[in-house]
Each structure stands twice: as structure tokens, then as C-alpha cells.
Amino acid sequence: MTNQWKLKEIVLMSILGVVFGIIYLAFFLVGQVIQNILAPFGLAPFGYEIIFGIWFIVSIVAAYILRKPGVAFTAEVIAGITEVLLGTTAGPGLILSAAVQGAGAELAFALTKWKDYRLRVLIFSGMSAALISFVWHLFYAGNITLTPWLLVATLVVRVISGALLAGVLGKWISDQLAKTDVLRGYALGKELQKRRETGAA
Amino acid sequence: MKQEQRRPLLLIENFSFDYESLDQPIINRIQFSLNKNETTILMGSSGSGKSSLALCLNGLYPDAVEGVSSGEIYYRGKNIRDFKKGELNQEIGIVFQDPESQFCMITIEDELAFTLENIKTPPSEMARRISEVLKLVGMDGLQNRKIHELSGGQKQKIALASVLLLEPNMLILDEPTANLDPVSSLEFIQLIKCVQEKHQLAVLIIEHQADDWLDIVDRVLVMGRSGELIADGNVNSIFMEKKTLLEQEGVFLPKRFSNTADSFRNFNHRILPSEDVILTVKDMSFYRKKQIILNEINLNIRSGEFIAIIGENGAGKSTLLQLMAGLLTPFKGNIYFFDKPMEHWDQKELRKRMGYVFQNPEHQFITDTVLEELTFGLKLNGYSEKKINSTATKLMREFHLEKHRFSNPFSLSGGQKRRLSVATMVDETPDILFFDEPTFGQDARTTREFMNMIERLRESGTTIVFVTHDMDIVDITNRAIVLHKQNIVYNGEPEKLWQQEKILKKARLRLPYRIRNNHEEGAV
Amino acid sequence: MISSINPSIKAIAVLIPGILLSFTFDVFTPLSYFIFILFVTFTMGDISVIKWLKFFSPFFLVALSFAWMTILYTNQTFSYGEVMFTLWRFEITTGSILTGTSLALRSLCFVALSLLFALTTDSTKFMLSLMQQCKVPPKITYGILAGYRFLPLFQQELQILRQAHRIRGVGRTKGLKGKINQFRRYAIPLLANGIRKAERVAIAMESKGFTGDTDRTHYHQMTIEKKDWIFFSFIVGGFIIIVVFSYNLGYLNIFGKKV
């Protein structure tokens, strides 16, 4: 699989990991703030769920830009490793969580045989990542002890967050990025170029 | 050229290349050869495909960018397509322009070992070879230093060292000194000279400014804007006989051959500053992580002045600029803008009256199109639609951006980006404009255009403060301020600075070309 | 001392107890293991207590709030025992308190294990070991290192962006649209520059003869020695012994069932 990837694509995934690693830190604080706001209403468990989708965005951005099998999964794992290297409190456990989420995101692309990168597939990918990560957290974080209505509610919030913050936001950011012409050497940039040419003709 | 080298080292036959299609290729049917032990300089305006050509020569392009090419390139008579992956890279080494993005490891030692591992050097030999090559570039003993903590000049030396480990027969230097300060740049060129003599390499230099390379160059190649080779010959023949052609193509003639080299000197001199002080720095100190960056600085800036802040890297030039622009707060002392302490200014009002142009124009872009970029500030300050439109149109005309009204700011060329970043700062005619190394890494034409723009701003009465390394620019300012070891060591006319040998030496400054030429070559 | 352990072995050694802990729901097991990890960290880790606390304390607060949440919302399987007190509409049982405490201790174990790894592992060596021991392709490991190197540069750039936005008069934005725009104003320049750098550095690496081939020599030969296996057995074995103790003392609880 890695033989089909160019070195620059792998470095790109790593750089996505670094840039979003910095952005994640900001979102970690946002989550804390949301949690504090919701706490008086007894809704504290939803604090991080609302922004949970942001953790899958690397998968979606990388898959949408590079459009090759395995990218969604690998990008998330690489981002996980990069964050471990960044030396925050993340340990090898984070790489494992990243692999689970990445597999979730990859699922949607695999089902469309890595040919369809329209918004609906990206949204679906964010949702499948949310679902799989939710199952993982039932066990890994012990969420299975929580009361059923709360579990269902947090699942719904997480899936919506995955759809919006990973799927929609991921596509939007990538499209904005393509407009700056830095993606000319990648699948997304090439597609945009083609569209411009046919549009001009 | 010597007679015995009949077969060229590298032969390029009818070669074209482009990222997308060969209709209007970036490199257009080029034909030339490069010989052993010959130093060639390749010139051409920005975007003429020089860097792409370098990567085609060592076989990485068109593959790496999925581009297209036609024609053939032969290395020692063998078509480069017939080389195995990685093989040709050992023969032809490249040093690139950007010192930040040539490395993949943290320490010097590991980076050099990375190269040796690529060519399967036995581990037992590595330490010795690393130390040898570091000795050659004058950095032995620094094996464990982290690369990101090195200066730009040191990084380029490490880039050269790792390429030399490949023991190449040919060295390509792609604007290796464009991001270096003048003294480091000169040091790097000296180093190349000594490496070339020692190893008898063929060297291909890609450069905008040939001046400092002239005494080692045997041959000059020039690429035109349409991607064709438009000149090929020795230094004197090209720069004397093809002068007009080169100027049309926007190629910087070496100052030795150019009568317009002094053109900056025509600028600005008729504009004299007034006596009114608009900005005062009083007993100001600034610390970062308990380290003194600036110590007890005192400074006045008068209305209409053109000032250059100079000094070696790390002397605190940019910090001083940011402090004066109110982007940082002094640790001790005060800064007054129109007699009012900086902290008493309303942010909105302050930003209207002073502008700051960052080294990388992209950092200032916040919208999707050139038009939105120009109207952003005006909208924020609540001007009428009519006023906004007329101002934007005027700015686009003045800064030659009309054709790019709806372009994404990031997709502009280097010169256009710079013009746009300045245009966004002058939408409301500020009293003072700060520039952080505005001409760094820019080509001749962009620099000249930029200086024309500065002159227009000065005519409208704007005070200009530059942080710069370009001594030819310093030469035309009203005042030079030299920073050294946290202090101002010189504050006065540039003309008198050029006589202060001690200061020049300790602050690592070079004389401007005009003066160097008078005392003959190379006096530092 | 732990810093000399082979990074791959170390990673697996902290991963296994981490996963196995997810099956336990009593207080004794994670508490004993947490104490065990602290012991390992401060006797063999060469980690300064202050530095460790700096990283650890924010997570301590997170774990507390997580425990509290679990106590309030425990489901039937885990809210066994008597009702200890009622808080507004929540009935707090001994079971829910024990479960909440167990989960909080478990996450503290995760954090302590992560710190044990993160504070004693050199990033370059970790990558080299992944390549040499775990057979991760060189393209991936060197690709990751090349990207990771840009961290200080990006941090610097973020600061410049903040200043540049101030110059342009971009203040604090209001509303969701404003927030998204602000996110873009930071993300796009950082990413655009990052992508350009990714391309340049990849080209530079290939220019130095890097092909991604696994057949290469290694300057730093990463090895697995006896001490690595001793460390591994110690960390994993410690966990197993604690589980056995916990079982014999009748504390062990797996998925809400006493065993």
C-alpha cells in the first residue's frame, strides 16, 4: 500500500497531524468551556461530545485531498504518532485510539471503493468514525457503565458532530485550501484544475 | 573549456517540461550541455522554470509532480531514464533555497547519517565521514546541535555537507543564498569556491544576483520568460553584448556591467523629513524568557523620515520594530506615538495611523479575494459603499492588481503578494509604515517595483521604517540605526556609517556596492 | 534508566496493561496499579516530580469530573448496593460511587502510563525503533519525522499570525460564522505553508538518495536486549500479580460482575 504513496503525501499527512495537533489543543480548551457552561444544566457529559468530530478531521481532509485507499486510516494513525512525538500527555494509547477512529473513517471510503469523494461520503465517513469510536470508548473509557438514555443521547450528539465538524468542516477547509493553489500536485488540486479548464472552455 | 573533455557530463536535448500539459510548457525545448569541472550560472526572471529544470536534471521531475516532459537528458552518455531510483541523485547533488525545509532529522549528526544510510554506508564508517564533511564546511564538533536552532547560514552549510556526503560529480545550487544575510551569503559562496577547487566538481548555480559569484563562474545561461534558453556563453560576452535582451527579460545585470545599479540613489533624496517627532522610544528594555533582547533604547522618529534598522540576525531588529508598532509591550520604559503613550491609544485608531508589513505577506491575508482583502479594513471602519469601492479601485490601479481582483491572495506571484500586503496597509494613508525585511528573497524586478512604491508613499508624506539586510537600500535612507548586543551602536546618516569600520565589523555589515566599488572589490 | 529501554518494547509494555485495565470495574485493581506505576516512575524513570505534576494535574481534574459524571449517570448493572444519599433527582448508590472511582482511577493509570512513556522516550529513537523492530516502512517513519520537525516553525508562525490579525484590525469575532472564519484564518495559512514545506522537504530527501527502500544501513542500531524484556515483564507482570491479588481478596470486578 505504501508503495503507491509518494513521500510528499506521507509528509503531508504528518504535517496535517502537527497543524491539527495545535488546533486540537485549542479545541480541548473549547470543550472544557462548553462543559462548564453545560454543567449547571446537568448536561456536562455532552461537553466534549459536541466537538468530538474535530478529532476525525485529519482523516477526512487527507482522504479528500489524496484520494487513495488507506489514506483516511493512515493519516489518523500518523497524526496520532505525531501527537505522541509532540510530547504532550499522549502515550501509545492514543495511537490505538487513532487507529480505531481512522478505521471508522476509512470504512465509508471503502464502501464506495475509494471512488466517490462527494460531500455525502465525507459526512458518512465522519459519522462512521464517530460510531466506531463510540463503541471503542464504551470499553476503553468505561462508558458502558452509563445509563442507557445518556448513552443514546451522547451517541447521537457525537455522530452529528462527526458529520459536521469532520465531514462538512473538513471538506470546506480542503476546498478553501485548494483555492490557494498549493494543492496543484495532489488529486484534489488536479480535479479543481480540470474543472476550471472545462469551465473556461 | 579544456579540450580533453569531449563528452559532456550532462547533455540536454530538446527538453520540455510542464506540470500539466506541453501546450505552453514551463521549460520549452531547451538544448545545452554541462561539462566536468565547469561552473555555470543559470539566470532568468522569477517563474521562468529554473528550479523545475534543476529537478528535471537529477531525475526527480517529472515523476515527483506527475508532470509531463519530452526530449532527452543524458548523464555521461546514459539516458537518465535508465538510472535506477536514487542512483542519479548520488551523482548530482542539490542544495535548495529554503533553509527550513531541507531536513528530516532533529540533530546535525542524524541528518548527515540519514544521507549516509541512503547510500548504504557501513555504520562503522559513518562517524568518521560525518566529522570529515563537517570539518570541510567548518562545523566539526557541532554534531549534536539541533538543526532548527542553527542560523540560516549554518543550515545551508549543513545542507551542502549532506549533499557532499553523496560524493557527487555535479552540484546544483538553487538560489542557496536567497534567504541569508549578506555576510553569511558571502561566506557560503567562499565555501563553494573552496569545495569546487578541492573536489573538481561541475557546479550549476541558479541565481538572481550574479555579482558575488562572478569570479568563479565560467559560463552563463539565461532562460527567458517563455521557458526557452535565450543566452549561453561566457560572462563578458553575455553581460556586455546581450544587455538589452537581459533587461527586457527582467534579469538582474551584475552591478559591474550595469549603469543602472545606482538607480536606488535617485530615489527619495529630494524628500526631506520635517523636524516634528512622531514616535519616541524612551529608556525602553525588552526581555524574553528572562533574556535581555533590548536594553535601555532611546530613539526619536521624525515625520517623513526613511529609516533602516540593521544589524546581524538575533540583534533584536524585528523585536524593536514590533515594539514600535505596539505589537509587543516594553518591559521597561515607554513608547510615545504623537506624544501619547502607546498603551493609551485606542487599538482601532492606532491601526489606522500606523501600518506594519510582515516578512511573509501571506500572514496578513485574511479573506478569499484580492478585492475583499483591500476592502476589509474599510468595511471594518464603516465607510460608505461608494467610498470603499473608489478606494479599492484606486489601490488596485496603483498597485497593478486590477487583473487579479477576484484571485485568491495565496495564488498570486511573490511580487503581487508583496504589493497586495502593502496595499492593505495604505487604504487610509497611515502616518508611519513599518516593514520587516521587505526585499528578502525577492528578485530584481520585484525589488525595483517595491522601491518605486516606497518612493510614492514617501511623496505622500508617510514615514517609513525598514528592517533590512540590503545595504544598497540602507545607503539611500535618511538614517541608519545599527543594533548590536541589545543596544543601539550607531544612529545617524548612512554615509558616515560607511566610514566606521569597527562598527561595521562587529555588527557583521557589508558596505553597499557603491562604496565597495570605490575601494575596489570585496572589502568587508 | 527507563529512557534506555527500547521504545517499541516500552510502547507495547504500557499498552497491554492499558487495554486489560478496561475490563476491570473495581477500585482495588486500578488503585494498586496506579501506585505501582508511580513507584516505577519515580524510582526508575529519572523524571522530576514537578515536571510530572505539571503534566499530570490537569488530567487529575478531568478524571475527577469524569468520576462525578459517572456517579450521577451509572446504569442499573453498576448502581448496585444501597442508596447512600439523594442529590436533587439522582440516587447515589455505593455501586455507582465505586464504579465512578474505578473509572477515574483507570484513566489516571492511562495518564501515568502515557507519561511514563512520553517523558522517557526520544522521538527520533522511537521512530527508528518502529522502523527497525516493528518493520514500519522507512517512508512512513522518516516522513513523520520530517513533518514533526516543523512544530517549532508552526508555533512561531501561529504567533506571527496573531500579530498580523491585530494589525489588520481583526478583533474578537462574534457568532458561529465569525468563529468559523477565524478558524479558517489560522488554519489556511498554516496548512498552505505546511503543504509547500512538505513538498520541498520530500524533494530534498529524495535528492539525498532516499528511495523508501527498506534495504538501508542504520547509524543508530536499535536493539532488543535482556533489560528490555525485564522491563516488559515487570510492567505487565506487575499488572497480572495485582489482578491475582485482587481476585483472591475478592475485589476483582469485570464488567459489573464479581469474579
Instruction: Tell me which CATH architecture of chain A applies here.
Output: Orthogonal Bundle
Kindly state the number of beta strands of chain B.
Answer: 20
- Residue fraction in strands of chain A: under 5%
Q: Rg of chain B from C-alpha positions?
A: 25 Å
String of helices and strands of chain A: HHHHHHHH
The end-to-end distance of chain A, rounded to whole angstroms, is 37 Å
Give the count of helical stretches of chain A.
8
> What is the CATH level 1 assignment of chain A?
Mainly Alpha
Main sheet: strand order of chain B: 6-7-8-3-9-10
Structural class based on helices, strands and sheet pairing of chain B: alpha/beta
CATH topology of chain A: Arp2/3 complex 21 kDa subunit ARPC3
**Using DSSP, what is the number of strands of chain A?**
0
Q: Mean pLDDT score of chain B, rounded?
A: 89
Specify the helix fraction band of chain A. Answer: over 70%
The oligomeric status of these chains comes to heterotrimer
Kindly state the percentage of residues in helix of chain B.
25-40%
Short description:
The complex is a heterotrimer of chains A (201), B (524) and C (259). Chain A is mainly α and 201 residues long.
Descriptive key words:
heterotrimer; B: 524 residues; alpha/beta; six-stranded mixed β-sheet; 20 strands; globular; C: 259 residues; mainly alpha; 2 domains; two-stranded antiparallel sheet; 9 helices
